[in-house]
Each structure stands twice: as structure tokens, then as C-alpha cells.
Design goal:
It contains twelve helices and eight strands. It is of the alpha/beta class. It has an eight-stranded mixed sheet with strand order 3-4-2-5-1-6-7-8, with helices on both faces.
């Protein structure tokens, strides 16, 4: 069975979509079959691979919104799983149609809370790694992602606005564990970091002091190679594998795998 990771923060601009996009490339280059689930109605992750015109014109039954359409029955996976230009990366896209379902009070939405989990049970045997990109709010899409995932990664830019609201994120994770007891925080990921800036170094150290081992060792820098690769619709590992951006993303992929394996080992012992 695949490992499922969701990337969550209640603030926009933290690098959730970018991290999913480039991390998928690192896992794919390592020989893994990767599934990307876009649960953000903005569809940024989907547009990264398919372009905005294609994504915006997808009908709802060909997007992740089909999982929430309770009146239409459970969708055939072949209708919402789309190939990308990279054969080892598959995408479940999102667009504006998902916004209708991303409602407040998600814990009161009945069986639809399990929509993603049931879908992944059906398809996860085809994949090694599943990455779920979430919107910057505590509504239904975030909740469904956590209920369907094994681990949570919290991308955090090292600045005041980026670190605000982390307590609410942790509380949401604890609440989701009532339905998904196996859900674990894999760690906070420092993103968009420029260590030349004193304020960035200060906030990174503050995070590590507060959360210790729950901050990943790997730091994702703010470098142009990520943006250039995204503009070319290719993860940086495939667009510029010699860049610092690609090296750092490979390091992150390795650390994630190491932490996931450690988590599994601890569960077996328990």
C-alpha cells in the first residue's frame, strides 16, 4: 500500500503546492509511482502540470470534485486520474468546481468525510507515494485530506505571518485523529527560506526550539530554479537536476522516507 502524505497550513503562500509539485519529481526520479491529489479549489498543483486553460475547462466529473458528489455515486477512478507528461506521476486534478464542496464544519458532513480515504483504498495499490495538496483554510477539503492520510507535513515560511496559526493546525490534526487514529505529524517543513536574512534564521531557530524533532532537518530555499521549472511544467528534478533546488528536494524526499520508515517501526513495536 502507498504512503499518503497531506501538506497543510491555514495560510496561503507557504509553498504547499510547489512542494508537492517538485517533491513528486524527486520521488519519481527515485523509481516510485506517485499520485498527486489536488484538494485546493485554486487548482495550482493541477495547473503546474496541465496549464491553466486545460484545468479551468475540466468538467466536475473529471476532477476530484466527483468524490464529493454524493448524488452521482462513487466515480470510476479512470475518469478522474489523469496522466502527466511524466509517466511515473499521475494527477487527480481540481478546479473551481471543488469550491462548492469546501464548506465549514467539515466534521458534520457525514460519510463524505471518508470520501478520499475510500477512493485511495481503491487505487493506492497502483502507487508507492501519494501527496495531497490542501487549501489554506480549515474547511472540508483539509479535513477529508487528514482523514484519508497517514502523515501530515506542515510547510512553514520562516516569518511571522507564516508561523501564525500553527496551533490551530495542530488542533485540527488532533481532531482528525478521532476518525483516523493512525494520522501522525511527520514534521514542520521550513520553506521559502533565505538564510542571508536574519529574520529567517531567527524564525527557523524559533521553530526548532518550539517543536524540536518535529521540524524536518531539510530546509527548502527561496531560489529561482523552482519557479523556472514550474514555468516549464516540469519538477525541478527533471528540468534542472544539478541545481541547488533539485538537490535540496532530493534530500527532503530521502528524509521523508526515513521518517516514514521510522514511524512504521515504532508502530510495530507498540
Amino acid at each position: 500500500m502507498a504512503t499518503t502524505l497531506c501538506l497543510i497550513n491555514q495560510k496561503g503562500g507557504c509553498g504547499k503546492s510547489s512542494t508537492c509539485f517538485h517533491l513528486a519529481g524527486a520521488f519519481a526520479a527515485g523509481g516510485m509511482q506517485v499520485l498527486l491529489i489536488d484538494l485546493d479549489p485554486q487548482g495550482s498543483l493541477s495547473q503546474g502540470f496541465l496549464g491553466s486553460a486545460t484545468v479551468e475547462n475540466l468538467p466536475p466529473q473529471e476532477t476530484v470534485a466527483a468524490l464529493f458528489n454524493e448524488g452521482g455515486g462513487f466515480p470510476d477512478p479512470s475518469t478522474i486520474l489523469r496522466p502527466t507528461p511524466l509517466s511515473s506521476i499521475t494527477l487527480c486534478p481540481a478546479n473551481q468546481h471543488l469550491a462548492l464542496f469546501n464548506t465549514p464544519a467539515p466534521e458534520h458532513t457525514g460519510l463524505s468525510q471518508y470520501a478520499l480515504r475510500e477512493f485511495l483504498r481503491e487505487v493506492s495499490g497502483r502507487f508507492d507515494m501519494i501527496l495531497v495538496d490542501c487549501p489554506p483554510n480549515p474547511y472540508r477539503c483539509n479535513w477529508v485530506a487528514m482523514v484519508g492520510s497517514d502523515h501530515v507535513i506542515i510547510p512553514v515560511p520562516p516569518e511571522d505571518f507564516g508561523t501564525q496559526g500553527l496551533r490551530a493546525v495542530h488542533q485540527a490534526i488532533e481532531a482528525a485523529r478521532r476518525l483516523r487514529p493512525e494520522l501522525r505529524r511527520l514534521g514542520h517543513l521550513v520553506t521559502r527560506c533565505d538564510r542571508r536574512l536574519l529574520i529567517h534564521r531567527h524564525y527557523e531557530q524559533r521553530l526548532r526550539t518550539l517543536y524540536r524533532h518535529l521540524v524536518l532537518d531539510t530546509v527548502i530555499p527561496e531560489v529561482s530554479a523552482f519557479k523556472v521549472a514550474l514555468a516549464e511544467r516540469r519538477p525541478v528534478e527533471f528540468h534542472d537536476p544539478q541545481s541547488v533546488a533539485a538537490e535540496r528536494t532530493r534530500r527532503l524526499a530521502d528524509e521523508i522516507l526515513h521518517r516514514v520508515q521510522g514511524s512504521h517501526a515504532r508502530r510495530r513495536v507498540a
